[in-house]
Amino acid sequence: MAASLRNQYQTATSSPELVYFRQATWRLYQPVASVLWQAFGQEHRLRPGLTFTPFANAVRCNAHCAFCSEELVRHEGHQLTAKRLIDDYPAYFQRLRAVLLPFRGFALGLSLSGLEATAEPRWLRGLLACLSGLEAEGVVFDEKVLYTNGSGLATEPSLVPALHGFGLSRLELSRCHDDEDVNQRIMRFNRNQPIWRNAVYEATVRGLHEQLAVKNSCILTQTGIATLSDVERYLAWARGMGVRQVVFRELSRLEGSYLPNVFTDWIELNRVPIEPLLTAVAPTLEAIRPGWQYAGSTFGYYYYNEHFRWQDLEVIFETSSYPALQAANATGVLQKLILHSDGTLSGDWDPDSRVLSRVPAPSLDYYPSA
């Protein structure tokens, strides 16, 4: 099984082997040996290839996706980072330096995510400048990915060359449907965001290709893209914008790991499992749907991907499990580093879980619940 720092890739050579991959999914991931690392006065076990996320939360998110993971509440209690805004940028960037310098020389993947990083261009430019300075001091990012709904790229196109100059590996651009009205029912952009309109979205995407690698990300939902004919129509639309890589993601499997609320209810009601889609594309290796080619499978510590070619596009179907993610975290090996907007560095999306370093941050304020 071929392995990278972050996952393992294998190509099924027989139909029974492909069935086995699909049944076992992320359970086939073979953890690599952890690395002992001194930071903040303690020894930590790090997973080679772990990613670092400076949680983007300078302003409220400008979309209100019906599946938002930041609205999920764990049974044991969960402090939502999304409820705290960053309102002192110099203090935040000083803290960012303090938490990353101890990891100089350890290769990190940079995952720019959280809420919507492009919603506050001044903060994002400051973030890129701070991270570039840290690279000059020996902090190593071997991959840099921005997960975005594209809103700020439409209203502040100067962000595109800034991201290019930073050396962004790719931009994962979220869009849940090729029809703007259907997409709006799922992603629920603020109406003052031009990106909700297809004409703006399409023009924005076409303008990205000269400077950034673009990967379209589509969450599968009963409300939106649910069938193979939906998938192929979406792919034709993406191809028309010059996109050459698309991932279709199943809503992450919760399996009772979060308290019921309107978001978990929506997720379970709208879930589209990938298994029927995989069967429709490739019931066996000998009977693959015309126009499609199986390329291989990826095993991560909490996700499974199946890779195909459709015309000249790379197409990925992905499924993932929150319980598998939490089980990996429970091993004591740090799988991820997250700088939360209250100044806490933790190994979990919960700022009160697996804390590595915490400082008082009086300038980082809560906003009231809606």
TrEMBL record:
SUPFAM superfamilies in the record: Radical SAM enzymes
Gene3D superfamilies cross-referenced by the UniProt entry: Aldolase class I (3.20.20.70)
The organism's taxonomic lineage, starting at the top: Bacteria, Pseudomonadati, Bacteroidota, Cytophagia, Cytophagales
Protein name as it appears in the record: Radical SAM protein
